[in-house]
Structures
1.
Amino acid sequence: MEIAQIATIASKEFWDRIRNRWVLAVALVFTAFALVIAYFGAAQQGSVGFRSIDVTIASLVSLVIYLIPLIALVLGFDAIVGERERGSLDLLLSMPITRLELLLGKYFGLAAALTFSTVAGFGLVAVVLSASLDLNALFHYAGFMLSSVLLGCAFLSLAVMLSVFAADRTRASGLAIATWFFFVLVFDLLLLGALVVTGGQWGGDVFPYLLLANPADVFRILNIFSMNDIRTMYGLATVFPSALADPWLLGLVMLAWIALPLWIATWRFRK
Amino acid sequence: MADTIPDPDNADAPLIVARGVRKHYGSIHAVDGVDLDIRSGELFGLIGHNGAGKSTMFKMMLGLIPATAGEIRIGGALVTGGDFRAVRRTVGYLPENVVLYDNLTGLETLGFFARLKGASLAEAVPTLERVGLAHAARRRVREYSKGMRQRLGFAQALLGKPRILFLDEPTTGLDPEAIRSFYAMLRQLKSEGVTMVITSHILAEIQERVDRLAIMSEGRIQATGTVQDLREQVDLPLWFTVRVAKPDFEAVRDALAGLPIDAVEANEDHVRVQCRREAKMAVIEALARLDGRVRDLTVREPSLEDVFFGFSD
């Protein structure tokens, strides 16, 4: 594997997103939402202004779970199928580059753009709030940003996998939307439905493990479980074994969610 | 099979060698047992109907898709083997309807492909000059006309000073002047020793320009050789146009009597005579005996299109 070839593809993908202001637009969206949530999150309770980092992160988690998977899927769904449909894939593959290098270059370039906009968007909010945050709060906020980046990379990996399997861009976009619906909206409902229908007789023991089969849930647990006040609010402590809530373990699960779809995409792309 | 592969150390050995190449998609045999030798410095044409297998063959020669059976070597190295990077650095490829990146400038486009090819970035400007795009180097590709995009595509193929160029329908969408200047560039490259493999649907365009060509049909090579070789192989009739005054038409018929003539057609001011190739010289001698009555004489050899249909039908 030649790193230089991966870097060339990745660099083009990244700078394409900088040039077309994609990175700027997404960063501004993150900043705007984060600021609104930080200052007006408690408006329903009749007060405005920054309250605590835990409450802010909890609100941001709810936002990010919807937003980042969608942005990542939109960013990556046509990474390969788009090149194929436009007719530029053959030209790229006629270069001294392997399919693995091309795929990784695409992924790393898009992941860099997503990471940059996530860190810039939420990081700007951290700078604005820094006067109100102690070191511990900043640490929690940095953890939230890191997990947001991992969540984005996991869904980007799924998007790139879909872009390898899909026959055309239309189908790829349909698959991307279906993937978002499944993981963000449907997955938890299915688990809860199964629990309710069986009166808790089925699935109760495996329920926490099944949550790991959804990167959005892994992200939620990763953020919520690290904050005592919020954990009790979500009721997770009663259903989720603390052994599974180790941030390092959850981080590894997230990395697996990045690696596995990429591995499947590579296998398919080589065929 | 190995014993049929020419020794790459031999200077006269073909540069591109295909042996027993097949590509099957289930029951569809896109390429079905192709053997091909393309010599160094040659301008080689690959022609065929849509679906004849030439695009698949092209992609296999470039190593874009693997062969179901057989092997393809460039300079002795397998195109899909461990030396694939070295092979591809010797190759330039211009796809049909080349698609480049609209958001990049011409210069950035060449910079991107130069990095991928491992070519010097310093090549970009002279290459743009070579294809006549120096004036548009800093314009975005989205502002380029179809002809300019094709020239930029050709420029990326020239990066790294390739020994071999694969040109797939390279003149599609170009105006006649652009086509002429394109072939002038190919002549220049040929004089520099570059080997070129070209496909085209416009047979009249390549018949005077290729050194040799192969006709593909139903996944197989039907014939290989120079245009003249193929004319002789397919044995199509020749047409003479004999320009004579109307009262001399009968004299032409009389002169040709006894020769193996296929057809004689009298028109307003000329007679058209169709005959087999082997009768060509006898017909010319017979017409020469008509002294000054023949005002003009043209011989039309079968065109490449005639030859193509002769093989593929």
2.
Amino acid sequence: MTESVEFIALLKKRDDSAFNQLLELYQHMVYNSILNIVQHEQDAEDLSQEVFIRIFKSIDSFRGDAKLSTWIYRITYTTALEWERKKKAGKAINYFKNLIGINEQKDSIASFDHPGVSIENKEMARALFKALSQLPEQQRIAFLLIKSEGLSYQQASEIMNKSIKSLEGLIQRAKENLKLQLNNFYKNN
Amino acid sequence: MKQDKYIDDIIEYISTIEKQKISPFFKSKVLARLAKNTSEETSFVFKPAFVIAFAALLLLVNTILISYPISNSDTSNQNNVSSTEQEWSDDYSINNYSSIYFYDDKQ
């Protein structure tokens, strides 16, 4: 239904009920995808709002070459990664401020407890999310789309605009990098 | 071997994490933000950049309008004054410096 030409036409007309339906259908997907990247519940919710504002504003640029869900995934990951880059830039500035002693704010590295993780697995999930946050962007997105979102390689390759072969390469390298990171966790436990 | 298995399990664990439901107020928050954005777009006249630019333009126009007539009128006034003095001294055949000189010379 949401992929139909009529539905998209209604969205382009800024039809309230169509937009409500879109929100209803994609809000959890957008939120969970962002939560895996930003690893903070409130930030994830704020950014999810931002994603839907962007969808609403730029729906006219949706040409229908890809599925609507593919387009929404792209906006979702772009928004999350932009936020992350800004945050990293802010951290770098804070680091230099600390070096020259003009920053009183200490940069703390908070570990993330995903709300969907059971208590007995919290430690393991924490290590996994920390390792994930250190992966290069493309590897991380590929890994999350396949492993967390449970999408097929075909769907993920469309979202990332890559061939299935290069996507497989990304997943392979992501796993290798995660193993390297998690080796330390294993040794310490 | 045991280590590899344990790490593989951690990596695969992500697919078992329960998906979260977003706050029940999420939809209304998005709709409120959209409504706010739309109203902001219509009242662009009140955006700070527009207001500052308009004020600067107004100041510039006022400065030009005020400064030009004053400088012109100043020059014309000065001309009027000096021409009046000249006329008066011509009328009474007074040349201040020469009069004093001749007077002194006679003394």
3.
Amino acid sequence: MDAGLLQQMLLGALLGLSVYLPLRCGQLSLASPGFYAIGGTIAALLSTRLPALGGASATYPISSVLLEMGLAAALTGAIAAAIGSVVLRLRGIYLAIATIALVEILRVITLNLAITGGALGIFGIPQPFNGPEGYAFFTAALLALVCWLCDRLERTRPGLAMAAIRDDELAAASQGIDTAQIKLLAFVLSAVVAGITGVVAAHFLNSWNAKLGNFDASITTLAFVVLGGSRTWLGPVLGGLLLTALPEVLRPVGDLRLIVFGLVILLGPLLFPQGLISPERLQSLGRLWPGPKRLGRQAP
Amino acid sequence: MNRRSRQALAALVASGIGLAACSDQVASGPINLSKGVPVGAVLALSGNANLYGQDQKTGLELALASINGTGGIGGRPLALSIEDSGSDEPSANAAFTLLINRGVLALIGPTLSQQAFSADPIAQRRGVPVVAPSNTATGIPEIGSFISRVSAQSSVIAPLSIDKALKRNPAIKRAAVFYAQDDAYSTAETVIFQQALTTKGLKPVTVQRTQLNDQDFQTQISAALQQKPDLIVLSLQGVDGGNMVRQLRELGYRGTIVAGNGMNTPNIYPICQQYCDGLLIAQAYSPELQTPANQTFLAAFKVAQARNANARNLPARAIPPQLLAQAYTALQVIGDVLRRLDQKQPLKTLSVAQARTALMAEILSGTYQTPLGEIRFSKGGEVIQKNFFVAQVRMDPGGKTGRFALLP
């Protein structure tokens, strides 16, 4: 497989996780592309405008990328905390609409600011790696880290509280769970994941513009979670990997490829309403093949 | 669950390491000539820029037939693979990478300047020559030493149509400008249009901003018409531009309309129909050019059109649009250069990387007789073209089809 495609798939998986986190506590937030755009813009601005970050060597230093990721995480986290405490009072479809509005506002601001290059965006973003292989390695490590954190989260108190809120918010609140705080935590984590993903994506794509974090991206990333499943972190990872790869893998089909892609998105939720991966399905798979060697093969 | 998750993580990291270990082995190997000399093209065949990609595909197919009909490259056919880049950057990047990994010697595309800013650096890093057939934004050849274009940049062409409008009607005093603020091409071109207007002493009385995917422009049009403009300048793409022209006329505007390169395709006819009539658009291609290269191109175009029209029961287009001619030119340049290179150093003796580097040097050093006239390239890869024109759209009485009539 081509490393460039793998890199896009890994970015898709990270974005899937970002949509998954609020959805895990029952919050339909479509704000991820907005935070992704903030992360990308920070990386594009810092790496093209601040020569000090460039260092002496031909490739852009990884330490500067990590610095950008840190800044993006702090900024997206702070913005999410500020906005989240207001919009998370909304529920269901109203929250979705409010987050779409957030994505739209960010897009219009980016389009109209001179510093972000308007519609043309920012280009000539320096490269920390010589080829897509380096990016894929870096992003795989990042994805592994985020997956590990999600896995830890799912088995600790805040993660269990999130599942409780998803199942019944009223019951969860009556058990003493601070639902507002837990929902805000999920929203902030989601924003941080999207923000650091944006940093990597900006370097990988060479250029950054407002179109990359628009409403279309909201829907695509939501499809990752719907197809993969929203009950455990493996679902959005698989959904993100699969749906990003599919249009490219289908290239030999020619003109029909986008139709086939649409059919997959349509049939996936029809045949697997809970998503491809659910805890029950994982358990039954585990019973079928108990050997540790085989188990490893279920991984994406 | 705990153990399973750890194994999943381990597999993920392992797959990453495994991939990172692969490197670019195609470039150092010999050229795969089994199916012909490999060249790639990346066009917007889907998404909102697909109107352009379709024209470009026809142009490339005509050029391919012409090259292979006249002996190919030293007896071998030219093998062109066309990949869809959608109208977005990640798809363009993926298509570029795919073709480069397949070992193509040169690339044509991508369709949009915005895609070029993202995909061209990949070709530059991998040392693959790119000939852009339709990127008009400033700064494209500057992306790197392997990037060139046959499409003259909009800062050269766009002001010509304004000069022509003023020559035809010197009484024009009030200009209104429209552009799509979320589109790279539109925002870049409108700056050039507005500068050209200001130099002529026609500072725009109003500048209206639209969105690329807008269908309805009543608000902006009403606001603009209140200023009583007698010249309207549009930097819009095919679909939104066609709708804009239609709605401008329907809402009663009777003055001159100048459009930018985004509407420089006959595919706007079905959108604005009889209302397209009278539109002024600057051209980098003239079908009336009396050179052997252009006559060959026109003859091939007519044959293909007649066949196509019979097959689909459509009226044949009289003349080829600029995008089609530019795409033809791009592949013709690559074909000419491959022939020259093959005579100097037979392709089968070169590695892919050597052939790519030699090809780029040849592209920049040559002079080409093309449908666009005689062209050559600057050291930086910018096209040097002699003649530009201004055309007016003339629609047939039914409003179904029309033509770009060159103005003297």
